[in-house]
Specification:
Elements (H helix, E strand, L loop, with lengths): L1 H18 L2 E10 L2 E11 L2 H8 L12 E12 L2 E14 L2 E15 L2 E6 L6 E14 L2 E12 L8 H29 L2
Antiparallel strand pairs: 1-2, 2-8, 3-4, 4-5, 5-6, 6-7, 7-8
C-alpha cells in the first residue's frame, strides 16, 4: 500500500515535470579536477521574457535558494563591448559538509541571446572557469536555454563521487531554476 502511494506520488511528479519546462540534455565530465558541463533545457515562456529574467543579475537569488548573494561589482569595457562584473555566492553541500562558494565573473553579450562568462580566479573559489549561455526561441510560448561551462573548483570535492554529485546537483538545481523562471515569467505576464 505504501509502495503504491509513493509510486503514485512519483508518477504525478513526473507528469507535472513533463508539463512544465524540462531538461533536454545534461552531461558532466570530469578529468584531473576539471569539470565540463553541458545542459539544455526547454522552458515555458517567450524568449524575451525568459532572457530578461535570466539576465536580471541583481535578482538571481529569486531563481534558486542556493544563490545567497548576487550583485554587480562594476561595469567594465573590453574591446568596445560592455562587460558586467558579477559577484555570486552560493551555498553548496557535499553530503553533510556545507560551505559558501564565491564566484566573481565577467559577463558580456557578444550577440543577442548569447551570454559569455569568464571567472576571475584571484577573487573566486575557482582556479579558472568560463561559460556560455544561449537563449533561443523555439516558438512564441517556449524557449531553449543551453549552458556550457568548464571550470576547476579550488574547494575539495571527493573525486569518486564528484562528477556524480555535480551532475545530480546540477540536474536538481536546474529543475528548481526552470520552475522558478516559469513562475516569474507567468506572474510578469499576468501583470499588465
Amino acid at each position: 500500500m505504501l509502495r503504491r502511494f509513493i509510486t503514485g506520488l512519483l508518477l504525478s511528479g513526473l507528469l507535472f515535470s513533463l508539463q512544465a519546462g524540462e531538461v533536454q540534455h545534461a552531461r558532466v565530465n570530469y578529468k584531473d579536477g576539471d569539470y565540463s558541463i553541458d545542459i539544455s533545457v526547454k522552458i515555458n515562456g517567450d524568449k524575451d521574457t525568459i532572457y530578461k529574467i535570466a539576465t536580471d543579475y541583481k535578482k538571481l537569488s529569486r531563481l534558486n535558494d542556493l544563490i545567497i548573494e548576487a550583485s554587480l561589482v562594476n561595469q567594465l569595457d573590453k574591446d568596445g563591448n560592455p562587460v558586467v562584473r558579477r559577484r555570486m555566492v552560493t551555498r553548496t553541500c557535499v553530503m553533510s559538509f556545507c560551505f559558501n562558494a564565491i564566484l566573481i565573473e565577467d559577463l558580456w553579450e557578444p550577440e543577442s541571446g548569447i551570454i559569455k562568462s569568464v571567472f576571475i580566479p584571484e577573487q573566486s573559489d575557482f582556479s579558472y572557469g568560463e561559460a556560455i549561455w544561449q537563449v533561443l526561441r523555439i516558438d512564441d510560448a517556449h524557449t531553449m536555454i543551453t549552458f556550457n561551462s568548464t571550470f576547476k573548483p579550488n574547494f575539495w570535492i571527493p573525486p569518486l563521487i564528484g562528477p556524480l554529485f555535480i551532475k545530480r546537483m546540477m540536474l536538481n538545481q536546474t529543475k528548481i531554476t526552470i520552475n522558478n523562471i516559469e513562475k516569474i515569467a507567468a506572474s510578469e505576464k499576468a501583470v499588465p
